[in-house]
Amino acid sequence: MEKNYLEGVIDTHVHSSPDVRERKMGDIELMEEGVRRGVRGIVIKSHHMPTAARAAIINKMKDEKYAGSRFQMFGGITLNRAVGGLNPYAVETVLEIGGKIVWLPTIDSEFSMKRKGKSGGVVCVRNGKIVSEMVPVLKLVKDYDAALATAHLSPNEIFVVTEAAKNMGIDRIIVSHPESNLVGMTIQQQKRLAEEYGAFME
Question: SS3 for 77?
Answer without folding.
Answer: strand
